[in-house]
Structures are given as C-alpha cells and as structure tokens.
Design brief:
With 42 residues, the chain is mostly beta strands. Helices cover 0% and strands 19% of the residues. Strand 1 and strand 2 form a beta hairpin. Bound molecules: zinc ion (ZN).
C-alpha cells in the first residue's frame, strides 16, 4: 500500500510505475499493512 504525498489517498501499487489516479502525483509514502496477530489466550 502506498499513500500519495500530495492528496494523501491510499493507492495499491500496480506494476513498477505508479501514479496517483487522483492528482497524478508520483511521490508516495510506503505503507506497511497492519498485521494483526491473533493470540489465543488459554
Ligand atoms: Zn494524489
């Protein structure tokens, strides 16, 4: 997942070239999806 620096919309990376479909900006912040670990309590 990436976030556009300009309009701060979430964009899923498609291929090698990514461009914001909303504003056309090409600088993104790389986001790591939150991994929710399920821990079962016994
Ligand atoms: Zn944008």
């Amino acid at each position: 997942m990436y976030r556009c620096v300009k309009c701060k919309k979430m964009i899923t990376k498609v291929g090698d070239k990514i461009r914001c479909p909303y504003c056309g900006f090409r600088i993104f912040i790389k986001l790591r999806p939150k991994v929710v670990k399920k821990v079962q309590a016994r």
